[in-house]
Amino acid sequence: MHPFASYVLRSYYKATGWNEDNLYANLTRSSSALLDFTVPHGLHFSVSKSPNALFKTTYAMTAMPSLHGSVGYIFTSCDLDVKSSGNVRFKDMIERFKVYDQPRRPETPEEEWLAGELVRKRDYLLYGRFFLPTGRLDALYSTRLTPTIQASISAISDPPSLRGQKGDMSNVMINLQHDVGKWCSEYTWSAEDEMWGVRVLHNFGKIGGAGAGASDVADDAAARGRGVKRVDEEDGIEGGLKGRVSVGGEFYFSAKERSAGVSTGIRFTTLPDATPPSFQIPTSSPTSPLSSSPLSHARGPPFQPPTTITALFNPMLGHISSAYTARVSPDLALSSRFDFNVYSFESEWAMGVEWWLRRPPTVVEPSSALPSSSSSSTPSSPPSSSSESAPPSLTTIPSPLEVNGVVKARASTNNDVSLMWEGRLRNMLVSLGVVSDLSSRSKPIKSLGLEVAFFSSE
Amino acid sequence: MPSEDTKERINKAVEVGRTILHYGWIPLIIYIGFTRSNPKPELFKLISPLA
Q1: Which residues does chain B have within 8 Å of residue A170's beta carbon, measured at their own beta carbons?
Q2: Where is the segment annotated Disordered (chain A) (predicted)?
Q3: Less crowded by CB within 10 Å, the N or C end of chain B?
Q4: How many Å lie between the alpha carbon of B43 and the closest alpha carbon of chain A?
Q5: CA separation for the pair A365, A193 (Å, rounded)
Q6: What was the ipTM of the complex prediction?
């Protein structure tokens, strides 16, 4: 489950038109959602509120293994449409498998004219979180310098009494992102170890527009037939998956530690599915009452299952990581990842699954069907049979099957098995998880956790 | 090269600046939130989510 501050930050990026997915650091985000999800440890409670569209407040408390808490405040220069935990779209709060939209050039903020003069409004976000009883402060300032450049300064500050001691975690990190859609570069500097870093991501194929049409496919085939390959040609892979390819790299070095690192990565992802997600498909329409069966949700997998394939290679450490993730049915996504080190021959194989749970169907009858009629079905009767037997005017309308929970599980060859359920109970978001080590007979359960989050807006 | 004295002064100034930011950052956010919000909310509502 996303913490409230993270949800607000994403809402801010969305409101300002910044595409946070077009970053090399997020190249493996889809598979990580299934394989590296965070299982709560201990008991967490958080209460958040947005008193107005610009300001947000969040309190959090953790009990077991140790009791500590934090207070956080967020201010944004633009209005954010932050929902409350009772009516927020559940999938927006969950790190999940998703085929991201085609990259596009960031939107230019709206121009504002005041008394005939152009007023340049630079959007920014301020965030601060104070931890008790340690006295640590987390701070973030993020701003859009130009339509394509975003800068952020983040800091961790330990209280003055701890400075210079061994446990001092204080650090400042400056980050500059430049996104033009096809390219995205990111420059970072970290004060603690004086580390400089550069990350670059390049997207092949078209950006911003709709996916390739049939004519493009024919053109591609013709070009291939001639042995000519366009530079920006969208590659297909065996099995007929059609998608786009992104490649990226990262280089960082630390003058203080006299060390450096490099990594490269490639990702293939299918084009975003043209069919809307199942929760958006209207389950009934006046023109086709017979197709309004709730079983329409259980339609078979789409023609092209949303798929993401990634490979990362770190030549200095000799580490290769390849992952395959696909949504095989509307409610089920599977992922598999193989890590291998070419120097030490160490390897790990991990598998993950994400299964969305839907609210049991509740049948709502239209008001016209209310007159007492033996043919109109009772809410408990199967809706599919009633829709066939009843005349169209009396057809029951099943409400959309809303997602209200997700079960995630992962298992890997290092004997760790994790299981997590996340869902909505009344107006709260609840997350319950367990990590177990099957090879240990004395302590098979490594950690157990429960997280409860409540937030509201006025 | 700056002298040892100057270095010490710079270090001290950085330390003081860090301390001010450490304790002043959250009051600064609340102050900006209070002054820039329109209509102005009650201060207590800004500070506590339970209000």
Answers
A1: 18
A2: 273-307, 366-398
A3: N
A4: 10
A5: 65
A6: 0.90
Q: Find the mean pLDDT for residues B10-32.
A: 92
Q: What percent of chain B has pLDDT over 90?
A: 45
Residue type, A72: G
Report the SS3 class of residue A379.
coil
Would residue A442 count as lying in a domain? Answer: yes
Residue with tokens 């230019």: A108
Question: Counting one residue from A and one from B, how many pairs have CB atoms under 8 Å apart?
Answer: 66
Q: Cβ of A127 and B29 within 8 Å?
A: yes
**Quick one: which of A453, A448, A447 has its CA closest to A8?**
A453
Check which CATH number belongs to the domain holding A30 and give it: 2.40.160.10
* Cβ–Cβ < 8 Å for A241, A304: yes
Residues spanned by the domain of A84:
4-206+240-274+306-363+398-457
Q: Are A396 and A377 in contact (CB under 8 A)?
A: yes
Which residues of chain A make contact with B29, given a CB cutoff of 8 A? 73-75, 126-128
Average pLDDT in chain A:
80
Residue in chain A closest to B17 (alpha carbons) equals A160
Task: Give me the residue spans of the domains in chain B.
Answer: 21-51
Residue of A nearest to B44 (CA): A51
Is A38 contained in some domain?
Answer: yes
Number of domains into which chain A is organized: 1
pLDDT at position A291 is 39
Helix (H/G/I), strand (E/B), else coil: A130:
strand
**B24-31 long-range contacts, CB within 8 A, separation 24+:** B25/A128, B25/A137, B25/A139, B26/A71, B26/A73, B26/A128, B26/A130, B26/A137, B28/A126, B28/A128, B29/A73, B29/A74, B29/A75, B29/A126, B29/A127, B29/A128, B30/A73
Is residue A229 situated within a structural domain? no
Assess contact for A271 and A212: CB atoms under 8 A: yes
Closest CA to A78 of A4, A142, A169: A142
Choose among A368, A399, A400, A363: nearest CA to A277.
A400
Average pLDDT over residues A279-308: 51
Instruction: Look at A128 and B33 and tell me if their CB atoms are within 8 Å.
Output: no
